[in-house]
Write a structure and sequence with these properties.
heterodimer; A: about 250 residues; 6-stranded mixed β-sheet; B: about 400 residues; mainly alpha; MetI-like fold; 2 domains; 3-stranded antiparallel β-sheet; 15 helices; flat
């Protein structure tokens, strides 16, 4: 068994009076892709946002339990959320590059956090991040054009490059390919496959084939609970729980 | 072929439907035409009354710096022309001679404004006694009286003599007032809006504040004038009639407009941009400074310009704080007594003399030109930086 990178223990979450997560226990392994699947409204995105505390931005969210990154409780009162998010990056469903140049999109956060200061350091970082995101060849000669002018798939890879530039340990992806066409989806999936060597990835997806293709481990969420968690092959070929089988065979969801 | 698509044209219900539609369209067009008619009528009236103020008749005279002129300026002018020349043109001569003693005994030719009633006679607005009319007619035929561009209107302050009256001190006053308004209302308004929109929790207190800000924007402006009088003049002792008190009062009035438009501009920035920045480890302030503010700045500036344009046209609250004043000389600073363009127009409008009526129209034209320019700038700014996500 690989080493655990992030772990949720007895995690409960409420939006006001509505409970969205019930006693979630889940481990995400180091340098592995963990897919979160389940029908709409099952709590998988909510869970993902617990991992970098994006839920803090929503008023009236109440949380109970423990989430840890390398054994360190990320909800401890001494934790700096800003610091946490440099360790746990995020890519959103809809590509959201900043309306700035491609270069600025990537250089912004490292400059802000002081990890790269000089122009040459930033140049190198922009290049290496874009290369890792498989976008360098397409944009090398137009780094000054706005990131918003790229195609949807390119924008999403720019967002991934932007997340990589901060040098996180974990990358959270919230349905990163659901707004993309099949070709761009394939490119992003390939990219996820490559990124796995260096980063721990947690991906929410509606697309079961995608989960099967990219993820080493898969968790099936239903009604705010983790119904089943296993390595992807076992979960898809030999589910232990009836509900999981019903979902992956398309009987509900 | 059976024609199924045209058959219903004779159906009375469909005919009635088309008729109703045509009627409704006619009503709308009529309403539009009436609105345009009113605007055109208004502009035609103002321009018709005011355009003549941009020209003024002047007369060529020989200024004779003699001993008597050193005491009374009129004596510098040939006796026959003393009732034709404006009193305002010669009253400065004694002072001029005192400051420049070498002038004594010399003469020089100059074009000076004519008496306003003669100017109005030439413009067809007033009548003169027959003999005077005949004299000035012949002077004009000789080329001694001519019509030329009225620089005085743009370079002088108010005067009791209409031919010497201009908008300059009111324009300077308006500029000073607007500077004070901008300096106070812009930073306070924008920062309040940022706090309310980006930082404040959504609770009863902030909701109450929001409702009150919206209500403030609807408060009649004269109330702000009373507030300015009570607070700034009576409590804090800010000089009455000064650009400072006017600017502070108008800042109170402009604040809600700037807050509301800034909040709208901030709200127009899509949330994914904020979330993306938060996910990069930005603090709230960094998100606002680096992402939200740059994107909303055009909207904020547009709202500010519109707020300022409204402040510029405002008269009622300024009456209360004493800015309807006779200001012949342009104010030198924000503590000096000042008046503003609309107040100057108001003052002239209450003058019975035709020459002042003409200047009222011209003043309105200048004010409208400035306001239209401001609003056009706001529209251009919005167009230029309009973004789609």
């Amino acid at each position: 068994m690989p080493q655990v990178k992030m772990q949720a223990e007895d995690l409960n979450l409420w939006y006001g009076q509505t409970q969205a997560l019930h006693d979630v226990n889940l481990s995400m392994y180091d340098r592995e892709v963990t897919a979160l699947i389940g029908p709409s409204g099952c709590g998988k995105s909510t869970f993902l946002r617990c991992l970098n505390r994006m839920n803090d931005l929503i008023p009236q969210v109440r949380l109970q339990g423990r989430v840890s990154l390398d054994e360190e409780d990320i909800y401890d009162s001494s934790v700096d959320v800003v610091q946490l998010r440099t360790f746990v990056g995020m890519v959103f469903q809809k590509p959201n590059p900043f309306p700035k140049s491609i270069y600025e999109n990537i250089a912004y956060a490292p400059r802000l956090h002081g990890t790269a200061r000089s122009r040459s350091e930033l140049d190198d970082l922009v290049e290496s991040s874009l290369k890792r995101a498989g976008l360098w060849k397409e944009v090398a000669d137009r780094l000054d054009t706005p990131g918003t002018e790229l195609s949807g798939g390119q924008q999403q890879r720019l967002c991934i490059a932007r997340a990589i530039a901060v040098n996180p340990e974990v990358i959270l992806m919230d349905e990163p390919a659901s707004a993309l066409d099949p070709l761009a989806t394939a490119t992003v999936e390939e990219l996820i496959h490559e990124l796995k060597d260096n980063y721990t990835i947690v991906i929410v997806t509606h697309n079961l084939q995608q989960a099967a293709r990219v993820a080493g481990y898969t968790a099936f969420f239903h009604m705010g609970q983790v119904v089943e968690f296993n390595d992807t092959d076992t979960l898809f070929t030999n589910p232990r729980v009836q509900r999981t089988e019903d979902y992956i065979t398309g009987r509900f969801g | 072929m059976q024609r199924r698509l045209t058959g219903s044209a004779n159906d009375p219900r469909i005919k009635a439907r088309y008729r109703r539609e045509a009627r409704f369209k006619a009503y709308s067009i009529t309403a539009l035409l009436v609105a345009f008619g009113i605007i055109i009528g208004f502009f035609a009236d103002i321009i018709g009354q005011g355009y003549t103020a941009f020209w003024q008749h002047e007369i060529r005279v020989t200024l004779d710096y003699n001993e008597r002129a050193e005491r009374i300026g009129r004596f510098a002018i040939d006796e026959d022309l003393r009732d034709v020349v404006s009193r305002g043109a010669v009253r400065g001569i004694p002072l001029e001679m005192r400051n420049n003693p070498e002038l004594a005994g010399t003469t020089r030719e100059a074009w000076v404004p004519v008496y306003s009633r003669i100017d109005q006679y030439f413009k067809g607005n007033e009548t003169l006694a027959d003999d005077l009319a005949a004299r000035v007619e012949s002077l004009r035929d000789e080329g001694v009286i001519r019509s030329s561009f009225n620089w005085i209107f743009f370079t002088s302050g108010d005067s009791k003599l209409p031919e010497m009256a201009g908008i300059f001190s009111a324009v300077v006053g308006s500029l000073l007032v607007l500077m004070v308004t901008l300096a106070i209302a812009f930073p306070i308004g924008v920062m309040s809006a940022i706090y309310l929109e980006e930082f404040a929790p959504d609770n009863r207190l902030t909701q109450a504040i929001e409702v009150n800000i919206n209500n403030l924007a609807a408060v009649p402006s004269i109330i702000f004038g009373l507030l300015g009088l009570a607070v700034f003049i009576n409590t804090f002792g800010v000089p009455r009639s000064s650009a400072l008190v006017g600017g502070l009062t108008l800042a109170l009035m402009t604040l809600p407009i700037i807050i509301i438009s800034t909040r709208a501009a901030l709200r127009a920035v899509p949330d994914p941009i904020r979330l993306g920045a938060f996910a990069m480890g930005c603090s709230r302030w960094q998100v606002v400074r680096d992402h939200v503010l740059p994107l909303s700045l055009p909207g904020i500036l547009t709202g500010t310009i519109i707020g300022l344009a409204q402040a510029m046209g405002e008269t009622a609250p300024l009456i209360i704080v004493g800015m309807i004043a006779y200001i012949p000389d342009a104010p030198g600073g924000i503590f000096d007594a000042a008046t503003v363009l609309p107040a100057q127009i108001f003052t002239w409008a209450s003058e019975p003399r035709q020459a002042f009526q003409e200047r009222t129209g011209a003043g309105i034209m200048v004010l409208l030109a400035v306001l239209l320019t401001l609003n056009a700038t706001a529209v251009l700014l919005r167009r230029r930086f309009e973004r789609r996500w």
